[in-house]
Amino acid sequence: MWPKKVFIREVGPRDGLQNEGTFVETDDKVEWINLLSTSGITAIEVSSFVHPKWIPALRDAADVFRRIRRVPGVTYSALVPNVRGLERGLEAGIDEAVLFVSASESHNLNNVNKSIRESLMEAEQVVNRCAAAGISVRAYVSTVFGCPFEGSVSVSQTMYIVQRFVDMGIQDISLADTIGVANPGQVEHVLEEVEKITAIDRIALHFHDTRGLGLANVAVSLKAGVTRFESSLGGLGGCPYAPGALGNICTEDLLYMLHGIGINTGVDMDVMIRAARMIQDKLGKSLPSCTLQVLSNLQRIS
Amino acid sequence: MWPKKVFIREVGPRDGLQNEGTFVETDDKVEWINLLSTSGITAIEVSSFVHPKWIPALRDAADVFRRIRRVPGVTYSALVPNVRGLERGLEAGIDEAVLFVSASESHNLNNVNKSIRESLMEAEQVVNRCAAAGISVRAYVSTVFGCPFEGSVSVSQTMYIVQRFVDMGIQDISLADTIGVANPGQVEHVLEEVEKITAIDRIALHFHDTRGLGLANVAVSLKAGVTRFESSLGGLGGCPYAPGALGNICTEDLLYMLHGIGINTGVDMDVMIRAARMIQDKLGKSLPSCTLQVLSNLQRIS
């Protein structure tokens, strides 16, 4: 059984662009986000309120939030590493805060210079502040399927963090394959464990296509009842060291699969293709989107 | 439930190379096939005995067969379009003949200038000649999931051809997504229909990764009990009009997925990576293999 309806969260402006070597001008980001706001998508991860020193590509987060045209029904969220980042986000008018804790101790330390325990305490403060500010909050568990430092990550460590997020009342928890090593067997296993502690409709999945298994992992997740996924237009987010290397799963390829299966997403493929081409042009390089490649081949042949 | 054991048929030397603009020298083909013969793989589609005018890249089929080192336990097969091709193949010492009929009338006409009816009669002759020669035969149904001329292809048309192949006594029937448009929902549906007329262990699947769904389609096929797949080292077989466009599903990426799930293939990943690099070097261009890209990124970073 396939789900009837799936929700896609476009994370290209945040997760996609943060790894790009090229700085996309604020005007261009705003134009791009405005276009994809008209696609029918209901959630866009717009930027990140981390210190600009760490992610210079997203140093204009506040400007972007102030200048985008908000479409009713679309949630515009931003990543916040801590309460200080959240305050900057609130000032800029974010609809939703996104926090993150890694399932791997060494990745968490390396990423935010805190232990998992400290990050969970910070997360609690973010949740409380969001409640006071009246905005929603969601949370990533990073490196669920593998860590660049430790290699394999125990499922129980992920479950511990999911349980803590559940206890904090976070309704929307995303399990992220930060380095793109997950396989469908592992995904199934993790989802079986997650279902023991929370309802599957509270869970989103966030895959990277580093090993070409992103959509295979989505397929088994759909079968397990997951209906929320994060993806990037064009498959943005490849490693800056490798031209052509794959980043997030590609939104338009994901749409091709979901619509092909007969699953409703509410998203207009044509608008998304225009938006994917727009960011490809702005970056001035070929993105790893099969859909864009197929369309460009068809143009050459005809 | 995942299957415990999966059989991979390496089709790079045939389906991969036939679309390459560059002619790979016979010596190089032989060296490459000899290397991949040592990987533990049990089936290699070595070449094609079609008229050299149609596929110049494989014009050395007979030479390749005569010069490769045969490893016991490996089946060395070749595509044959008709009895004349089969005779050339038998002379060159093929272990197995591979015939093909398209599920789409216009694709069949365009491909071999015959109606499906005529192709099925030819297939019967090939089957009889193989029986007389004492070699095995297998069969592709092409364009099962879509046709470049007709668009969608009816499942009943595929089932008709599968039934005819079953009636001819062909034990090994491969359903091919010739143009790479299949999605997991469609694959499931076709497999449900196939199971009504024959055992699933008689069926192999042959996906192209044009839309990035190749491994997603494999994942749902595994769940449906399919244990035989065709793939190409490096993801060879992209459209000559599009550098970087994707061809067959990539053997080493498929192995990464299967081994990650815990499925036994009997194939040594390290040997396959060496073989993928070898053909990449001989072609002198980057192949769409995620595994090769990841390895080359790791080298750059370290």
TrEMBL record, chains A, B:
<dbReference type="GO" id="GO:0016740">
    <property type="term" value="F:transferase activity"/>
</dbReference>
<dbReference type="GO" id="GO:0004419">
    <property type="term" value="F:hydroxymethylglutaryl-CoA lyase activity"/>
</dbReference>
<dbReference type="GO" id="GO:0046951">
    <property type="term" value="P:ketone body biosynthetic process"/>
</dbReference>
<comment type="similarity">
    <text>Belongs to the HMG-CoA lyase family.</text>
</comment>
<dbReference type="InterPro" id="IPR013785">
    <property type="entry name" value="Aldolase_TIM"/>
</dbReference>
<dbReference type="GO" id="GO:0046872">
    <property type="term" value="F:metal ion binding"/>
</dbReference>
<dbReference type="InterPro" id="IPR000891">
    <property type="entry name" value="PYR_CT"/>
</dbReference>
<feature type="domain" description="Pyruvate carboxyltransferase">
    <location>
        <begin position="6"/>
        <end position="273"/>
    </location>
</feature>
<protein>
    <submittedName>
        <fullName>Pyruvate carboxyltransferase</fullName>
    </submittedName>
</protein>
<keyword id="KW-0479">Metal-binding</keyword>
<dbReference type="Pfam" id="PF00682">
    <property type="entry name" value="HMGL-like"/>
</dbReference>
<dbReference type="GO" id="GO:0006552">
    <property type="term" value="P:L-leucine catabolic process"/>
</dbReference>
<keyword id="KW-0670">Pyruvate</keyword>
<dbReference type="InterPro" id="IPR043594">
    <property type="entry name" value="HMGL"/>
</dbReference>
<keyword id="KW-0456">Lyase</keyword>
